[in-house]
Amino acid sequence: MTKGVFGVMAEFDSPSALVNAARAVRSEGYRKFDAYSPFPIEELHEAMHLHKNKLPLIVLCGGITGGLTGYLLQYFVTVIYFPINVAGRPLHSWPSYIPITFELTILFAAISAVLGFLGLCGLPMPYHPVFNAPRFALASREQFFLCIESSDPMFDFEKTKGFLESLEPKEVCQVAH
Amino acid sequence: MPDEQEVLEDNTTRAVIAPGYTFGTVTDQIASVVLTKHQPMFWVACFGVAFSLLLLFLWAIVLLMAKGVGIWGIRTPVMWAFAITNFVWWIGIGHAGTLISAILLLLNQQWRNSINRFAEAMTLFAVACAGMFPLLHLGRPWLFYWLFPYFPTTIGVQPNFRSPLVWDVFAVSTYGTVSLLFWYVGLMPDLGTLRDRAKNRIGKMIYGVMSMGWRGSAKHWSIFETASLLLAGLATPLVLSVHTVVSFDFTIAILPGWHSTFFPPYFVAGAIYSGFAMVLVLAIPLRKVYHLEGLITRRHLDNSAKLMLATGEIVAYAYIMETFLAWYSGDVYEQAAFWHRMTGPYAITYWVLITCNIILPQALWSKRVRNNTPVLFIWSLIVLVGMWLERYIIIVSSLAQDFLPSSWSLFQATRWDWATFLGTIGLFTFLFFLFIRLLPMISIFEVRTLLPQAKVEEEVRG
Amino acid sequence: MSDLRKKLDLAAVRARLEGARGREYWRSLDDLASTEEFQDLLEREFPRQAIGWSEDENSVDGRRNFLKLMGASLALAGLTACTKQPVEHIMPYVRQPEELIPGKPLFFATATTLNGVASGVLAESHEGRPTKIEGNPEHPGTLGACDPFSQASVLQLYDPDRAQVLTYEGEVRSWAAFLAELRNIVVRQRLKNGAGIRILTETVTSPTLAAQLHAVQQALPAAKWHQWEPAGPHSARTSAMQAFGQPVHTRYNFLNANVVVSLDSDFLASGAGYLRYAREFSARRRVRTDQTTMNRLYAVEPMPTATGTKADHRLPLRAGDVEEFARALAAGVGATNGPQSGQNGDIYKWIGPISRDLLANKGASLVIAGECQPPIVHTLAHAMNAALGNVGKTVIYSDPVEAKPVDQVASLQDLVNDLDAGAVDVLLILGGNPVFTAPVELGMRDRIQKARLRIRLGLYEDETSEVCQWHLPEAHYLETWSDGRAYDGTITLMQPLIEPLYGGRSVLEIVTMMTDLPQTGAYETIRSYWASQHTGGDFEGWWRRAVHDGLVADTALPAKTVAVRGDALAPAAQAPQAGGSLEVVFRPDPTIYDGRFANNGWLQELPKPVSKLTWDNAAIIGPGTAHSLNVDTGDMLEVSYQGHSLRAPVWIQPGHVNGSVTMHLGYGRTRSGRAGDGMGFNPYGLRTAKALWHDTGLEVRKTSGSYLFATTQNEHALDTRRHIIRQGTLNEYLKNPESVHEGAEVPPRTLTLYPEFKYEGYAWGMAIDLNACTGCGACVVACQAENNIAVVGKDQVRRSRAMHWLRVDAYYSGDPDNPAIYNQPVPCQQCEDAPCELVCPVQATSHSSEGLNDMVYNRCVGTRYCSNNCPYKVRRFNFYLFSDYETPSLKLLHNPDVTVRSRGVMEKCTYCVQRINYAKIESEKENRKVREGEIQTACQATCPTEAIVFGNLNDPNSRASRMKAEKLNYALLADLNTRPRTTYLASLRNPNPEIEA
Q1: Which residues contact C549 (CB under 8 A, 6 or more apart)?
Q2: Strand C426-430 and strand C259-263: pairing?
Q3: Which residues of A touch C847 (CB under 8 A)?
Q4: How many angstroms separate the CA atoms of B447 and B223, rounded?
Q5: pLDDT in tens, C193-237
Q6: Residue A86 and residue C843: Cβ atoms within 8 Å?
Q7: What is the dihedral of CA C578, C580, C584, C587, to 10 degrees?
Q8: If contacts are CB pairs under 8 Å, which of residues 213-232 in chain B contact chain C?
Q9: What's the CA gap between B334 and B349, in Å, rounded?
Q10: How far apart are CA B171 and CA B292, in angstroms?
Q11: Whether C84 contacts chain A with CB within 8 A
């Protein structure tokens, strides 16, 4: 373990190179590494085994909560809190409750989707060590990066650096904390 | 960035994106619109006009609050006119944005990538304009919160959940919120790009904060994609429900010309119809001025035009069925309402609307019309006018002559009706041009995925 | 205001007034009035300036100003607070003890007069403020009903434009100054027996006033008393002299009349005693399961009137042709021997059937001549009634109701001659507005100025005051004591409810000033007069009774027998011109009468019967005339007659006879006040003494320009498929009572998915009998007065934003030249499944446990969705701040039991829920149910024909329930299944089988 080092980062020119590198790194046994690209790459997710996440579950819960809130709110108001004869309709006029129930389901689900997304990504996170990498700004333009983090048990600065260089990257650099 | 000629010569309408672009060039081209000091004359001019209209809008609002809705032409029995017409019209326009960003995403229509960003922005601003009217038409907007349930309410009375107007409150606010979230989430990677490319410090700061520290990590991308799909999945039923609920404002009422069961699909179709018209009205000048013909290609215009045509046909069908059913129902009031519509005091308006919405758009069957951008632009404007008139006719002509002839009276718009309407057009344009100036009008990261370079060549596994 | 505060402290004023009473009190007021600060105060006291202030001050100060102002004006009126009762003993009509209980209204019997004839009313007083007028059920002239003029008189009382100070050539003077001046005049005139004094009054029926005037004439034998009433019964008077050789008053009894022929008489909506006539007439028309007979009305008239709309056979004739019709009919019934046919087929086509019908009903028929018809028509009517043996049964002759019946045209002419002769030193114009209303050729404006001194007593500083040196503010009838005679001569007493707001005095007081009698107030004068008249003991008891009831029982003039002189029926010198040139027809306006109500917003905005026109008069012509002149409604005409001409906008009125132009008098005022000035045009400009009511020889020319009318109803065509008006004939009804509902469908109750709401206790409902409704519009004004409904003005009415909670729709069906006209009062229908409630997002309108469709004003956000979804369009929206929160005097007018609605709020008929609750509270205090008839809605209470009936539907015996049980009962737009609580009884006609083939 090296102090003050977050990890070692390799830069690639094309998505294919990145995907292959990611596959290689994983098969080498590294687990604590991450890839950075200017756009989502299906193959990369598969290469890094990133297919499962909890977001759908969160959204489902959000939706159910919303639906219940919607219906119960209306029921409570029209039947219990403020029962009054409106246009000769029964107090519990359930057909009229459907639109609002539906809308609230969607609203709650959507909000939980966004919050869930931010939560799972750990965003917002204004500072992150990878930003220290000199050329990392290009990750949002055209370059592809892969960073093996020092927290990985197999991490050894020299060996890891060497390994990454073996993947024919454009360049390899150290990422400070 | 490929030189002008190359793009212009590319006449194939199939291409989603012109050849010759790289990750770098698309990024630069789109970002440069934002990250530059001076703007084209076009932007300044439009922004100026929009701003003056916005001032007119504010003036109209001040007067409205000071004197009351009496400054409008509304009267017994035509208690709704411009305000609600504009409301429905704007909401409808919004729908195309959501359709492009959500439904086409689910359908995996790649061509959407380069137009969904500003289409979504359009949605947001259209909803903002639409939202104005339900508030303003109260004449005392500061009481709007009485439409929400809260405890304890003023004088202990609660909103009436049987009223379509309350449904509207929930539908529109949900629609606004979800659209905003969806749009913002989609914006985050590009905000990251802007952060990394901004020259001056303030720019870096602002975009940095807005991007929430997006760094394009693969883990994030995967969750991001799930989120987008989920949001799209939610937005799709939502967008259909919103205009359905809006149409309930009319169908729930017992008024002849309003009380009808097929308004929901008819309204949704109409909404998308006008929405795509607006998309084209915005896209055609933009791609010209900012030389985006390479990114917003003929293919996009063509597809939008086709969608316009398709929804237009649905609307036409709706008109015919509506009229047929009015006759077939044998209902005195219904028959009279439609007879008045077609031959009565509003006949001219009605036939203009038919021309704009049904007759002229048939020209879109011809490929030549669809490929002729100026013509397409004008046709889109025609459709927008037509759809506004449609709502106007539905609302005003039905109200003006309903059940008891003794109360019939015709609506005449005052200049403040017009000021308020033009005012929201000002507001919309104002917001839209601010957006163009400050945010990438095309989704950069999604365009990147369209590039051939984005393909991953699989190599044989060892 | 601040400088005023320094100059004059009102507390000090009150202090100075404290304890002062009667004349001493006035004196103290006068020397107060002479101080220069007070002039200053007066200047500011006019509400015009008052408004000026409160605009440039914040509302709080404005309010404080208002209090000061009221303080000021009432200090002037001798009150230390506006809730104080007059010092004389006036008698509350009901609810003893007399002490005022805050929040509980008191009712006082008094009376309104029109053309001198008194109609007994009950004035409702809240904490000393008269706020509402109801009919006096015990008064023979009204039987509890009330006309629009009386209803609107409270607004007149508080009218900020009323004359508020006594002025000499525009400068404020005190009453004492005037009294001194008048006494000098009288003293000087004594030397020549008052030869220089002329008194011009309106028609006088008041015995006391007559006595006073008599006293004046005794003291000053050469002084002359003239009377002028522009719309009075001139022809009837003349006819009486010609036919009977003596002044005779004619009154009718419609209860005994099976067949009525109206010769251009609008007896259902105008003229002396019409409230009673309408009640009696409709009583004979009410068809029920237990009453299947119905009278029959033939109406002959140029312009469709309320009476015309009720006619079973309406014959549009030029006013000038009515005489020929009358002669033919007279011959037909054998009253005279004349031709029964002539070249004008229209006139003669129905003579046969009608006369046969009349003859078949000898002694039970009635021929009634209109006040606007020439004397000969009246004489012919007398002859016919005599021939038909109706005298004593349906027609009653008596001594005149008027104190001094004179030919007023001659009387006025006489005055004019004296003026020209320069014989007039002093002209006292007590009431009336001769400069505006006198025949045009008399040139009253200039003529009057030939009198050296001109003294004017009037409610307003109007056209006449303009040419008079002295203007004396007149006391409103609610501010003073007076008396008068009803249509049948019944002695009617009027008591004040409030001290004069502006120190006004009545005609009586002015006349008394001219005598040497003690200068007491009106109270003493009246009381002492009746004391002198009273025979038998206990005057006090008699007096209290009379004041309490508002009338002296059994003082109707006894019937007398008179015979029509033969020579009176001599054929007219010149045969009535047939056809030929256009005919001009003058009529008093249905809502502002002869112009005296021109500044009354309620009456100006009250839609005129049939045409539904507001705020305007017009040159009204028939469709045929319009076609031949090639003009359309709104075109401008240049009309000239006898060298006088004016510009008037055209109004095409279906049912109006062709060849005539009807113009309603009273418009075109120049000094009526803020509401009336510049409205319409002034037909007095064409009206000559020769032709007070109609004449041929009118020239019209279409000119440039167009005119925008303000109406409350634009579409009158009746679409029978909508079953809005259900109607039939009596015979159809007798064959099959259900026949009126043919083709109309009512969805079965099983149609709804929802369980019904049960209404335990009371279930309020209303039934309106279309057969009885004459469309007179009294209910509309009553509703406006009761419910603090705002006046919106012509421009807003034009934008169809009138606020009336209750409207009377008029529908035409059939030939535009003579359509059948139906009236339909439409209040809120109080639907049980109310579409408006369903769509209100904030539940500002919802249902009460008694089935009322309640409106919660302070919850309404103003989406106006309810109005859109109301099929009856009875909801009214405050597009602007229509209610007057500014004008001080108008604040006193409001009914304290009803919210004054602010801007952006929807409002509508509530079945007078405040009255319902009042009655419920009373009944609960006495631990009983509300009694049938205990609650009367404002519209119901005022309706002359009892067409509107309100009651508890859970009580099967209530009148409303019983009416709803009738076969004729139907709900408006029943097919919508809104289940209205307000329903209608179909309208029936009783045509003459001979005429209706």
Answers
A1: C93, C109, C136, C138
A2: unpaired
A3: 84-88
A4: 19
A5: 888 999 999 999 999 999 999 999 988 999 999 999 999 999 999
A6: yes
A7: 20
A8: none
A9: 19
A10: 35
A11: no
Q: How far is C873 from chain A (nearest CA, A)?
A: 16
Question: What is the spatial distance between Cα B15 and Cα B447, in angstroms, rounded to a whole number?
Answer: 13
Provide mean pLDDT across the span C434-455. Answer: 92
**pLDDT tops 50 at residue C48:** no
Burial B270-281 (b: 16+ CB within 10 A, else e): bbbbbbbbbbbb
d(CA C683, CA C666) in angstroms, rounded, equals: 8
Residue that the structure tokens 């309410």 belong to: B153
Q: Is the dihedral of CA C832, B155, C761, C124 positive or negative?
A: negative
Q: What is the pLDDT of residue B426?
A: 95
A88: closest chain C residue by CA: C833
In 10 A of CB B438, how many CB atoms?
A: 14
- Sequence length of chain A is 177
Q: Confidence band (pLDDT; 50, 70, 90) for A136?
A: confident
Residue in C754, C849, C979 closest to A89 by CB? C754
How close is the nearest chain C Cα to the Cα of A149, in Å?
59
Q: A149-153, C244-248, C701-705: which range is least confident on average?
A: A149-153
Closest C-alpha among C564, C690, C482 to residue C250? C564
Greatest Cα pair distance in chain C: 93
How many angstroms separate the CA atoms of A141 and B23, rounded? 7
Tell how far CA B208 is from the center of its chain.
29
* ipTM score of complex: 0.90
pLDDT tens series, chain B, 462 aa: 344 444 444 444 466 777 778 888 888 888 888 888 788 888 999 999 999 999 999 999 999 999 999 999 999 899 999 999 999 999 999 988 888 888 888 888 878 888 888 899 999 999 999 999 999 999 999 999 999 988 877 778 889 999 999 999 999 999 999 999 999 999 999 999 988 888 888 888 999 899 998 988 888 999 999 999 999 999 999 999 999 999 999 999 999 999 988 899 999 999 999 999 999 999 999 888 888 888 888 888 898 999 999 999 999 999 999 999 999 988 899 999 999 999 999 999 999 999 999 999 999 999 888 988 999 999 999 999 999 999 999 999 999 999 999 999 999 999 999 999 999 999 999 999 999 888 988 888 888 888 888 887 765 443
C984, two tokens = 């209608």
Tell me the one-letter amino acid at C802: A
Single-letter amino acid code for the residue at B299: R
Q: Determine if the peptide bond prior to B77 is cis (ω within 30°).
A: yes
User: CA of C973: which chain B residue's CA is closest?
Assistant: B403
Q: Please tell me the predicted confidence (pLDDT) of residue B4.
A: 41
- Partners of B189 on chain A (C-beta within 8 Å) are 38-39, 140
B65 touches chain C (CB under 8 A): no
Query: Are C400 and C487 spatial neighbours (Cβ–Cβ below 8 Å)?
Result: no
H-helix or E-strand spanning residue C652: strand C644-652
Alpha carbon distance, N-terminus to C-terminus of chain A: 13
Nearest CA in chain B to C863: B138
* Chain B residue at shortest CA distance from C834: B254
Q: Which residue from C997, C585, C612 is spatially nearest to C812, judged by alpha carbons?
A: C612
Which residues does C446 contact at the CB level (< 8 Å), separation at least 6?
none
Q: What are phi and psi of C172, to 5 degrees?
A: -65, 130
DSSP state of C474: B
Q: Using CB atoms, list chains with 3+ pairs below 8 Å to chain B.
A: A, C
Contact status, residue B449 vs residue B197, Cβ threshold 8 Å: no
Smallest CA-to-CA distance from C363 within C386, C396, C379, C336 is with C386
Please report the number of interchain residue pairs, chain B to chain C, with beta-carbon separation below 8 angstroms.
Answer: 159
- Which single residue is written with the structure tokens 């990498």? A133
Lookup: tokens for C692: 């007070």
